[in-house]
């Protein structure tokens, strides 16, 4: 039986470091299970532009109906003691409503109202810290989904693979055996990120949690590790931002359906980029835009992977012209010669492609940086609130 004990402390709700200006625990009052926030949803927290929030996120793996909706019992079969199972995961599985036939699997925390965010602005979300909450995770191929639909899983409705975390040469790794029941001799480094970061849609119906879109959501871009930024076009007043679908590691494509899914404590900083400043820096941004220390990363999404690729190329051309003023035919040539287009995922109904445009290649071209609106102090606009019981 696989032991879960490892180098990661168990971050139960409110336990351990909480570095953000605010804290939102995952409770029945602060989460949606299988749906994303919409324009009519009430915020669980209100903040000023420039403030940070620490979220406890909960993985859906181990709490789903086909896993018994009892995470203590499910993880016990893999040698995880009850005290190493997250209390909030247990509570959500037992008490949060979800239709397994109509809703997605993801647990989403939020939404957060960011003062001063208006439709047409960009919400800048900086990933400051991502701390594993447990020393294990799960990778699943279920319900005839994944890249090899009809081939895998073989004779099984649901294959979920447990992966313990170990430390090797000072680096956390996920581990797998070569055969069922074997020693976990295969190891791959962790690179935690949130698969879901988004803003509410301008509609009165909550979207399904699986397909991503212009509002972000389940974009599953594994570049969004600590120190990176996501820009999202604001759809509703206050943005109503949310997070979820925590990952310990994911390969581009996410071919089996899920990656190494596991709960994270995420600290994110939220800033509003006014519409004029956003256009001056990037041109018209109509979908998620990622920024890493090295790359600007526009995205393309469509149920058809070829169409998603074309959408990403168009978004890349628009970004290069809007930011650096490069003529379209020259930008097209540059993309062909110098830019990698990666498959974000092919398993979320809407496929995703993202481009990695090296900013250093344009170091000789003047560009405007996206300037956030002046932040107001919390005392000047009323103290931000956290639902009762969410403050450690």
From TrEMBL:
Stored InterPro entries: FmdA_AmdA
Transmembrane segments: none
Coiled-coil regions listed: none
One family name in Pfam for this protein: FmdA_AmdA
Protein name: Acetamidase/formamidase family protein
UniProt organism field: Microbacterium phycohabitans
Lineage of origin: Bacteria, Bacillati, Actinomycetota, Actinomycetes, Micrococcales
Domain of life (superkingdom): Bacteria
């Amino acid at each position: 039986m696989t032991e879960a004990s490892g180098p990661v402390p168990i971050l139960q709700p409110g336990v351990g470091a909480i570095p953000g200006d605010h804290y939102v625990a995952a409770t029945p009052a602060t989460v949606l299970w299988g749906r994303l926030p919409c324009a009519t949803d009430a915020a669980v927290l209100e903040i000023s532009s420039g403030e940070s929030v620490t979220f406890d996120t909960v993985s859906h793996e181990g709490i789903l109906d086909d896993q018994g909706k009892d995470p203590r019992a499910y993880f016990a079969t893999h040698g995880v003691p009850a005290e190493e199972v997250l209390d909030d995961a247990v509570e959500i599985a037992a008490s949060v409503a979800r239709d397994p036939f109509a809703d997605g699997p993801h647990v989403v925390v939020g939404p957060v109202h960011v003062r001063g965010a208006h439709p047409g602005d960009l919400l800048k979300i900086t990933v400051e810290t991502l701390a594993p909450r447990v020393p294990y995770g799960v990778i699943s191929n279920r319900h005839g989904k994944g890249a090899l639909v009809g081939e895998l899983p073989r004779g099984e409705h649901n294959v979920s693979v447990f992966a313990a975390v170990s430390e090797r040469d000072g680096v956390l790794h996920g581990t797998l055996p070569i055969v069922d029941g074997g020693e976990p001799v295969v190891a791959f480094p962790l690179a935690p990120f949130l698969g879901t970061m988004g803003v509410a849609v301008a509609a009165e119906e909550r979207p399904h949690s699986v397909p991503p879109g212009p509002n972000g959501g389940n974009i599953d871009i594994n570049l969004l590790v600590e120190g990176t930024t996501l820009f999202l076009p604001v759809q509703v007043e206050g943005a109503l931002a949310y997070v979820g679908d925590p990952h310990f590691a994911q390969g581009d494509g996410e071919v089996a359906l899920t990656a190494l899914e596991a709960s994270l404590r995420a600290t994110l900083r939220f800033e509003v980029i006014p519409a004029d400043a956003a256009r001056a820096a990037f041109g018209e941004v109509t979908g998620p835009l990622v920024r890493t220390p090295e790359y600007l990363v526009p995205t393309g999404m469509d149920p058809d992977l070829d169409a998603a690729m074309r959408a990403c190329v168009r978004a890349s051309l628009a970004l290069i012209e809007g930011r650096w003023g490069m003529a379209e035919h020259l930008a097209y040539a540059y993309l062909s010669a110098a830019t990698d287009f990666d498959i974000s995922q092919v398993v979320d109904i809407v496929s995703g492609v993202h481009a990695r445009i090296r900013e250093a290649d344009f170091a000789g071209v003047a560009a405007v940086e996206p300037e956030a609106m002046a932040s107001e102090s919390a005392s000047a606009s009323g103290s931000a609130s956290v639902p009762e019981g969410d403050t450690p």
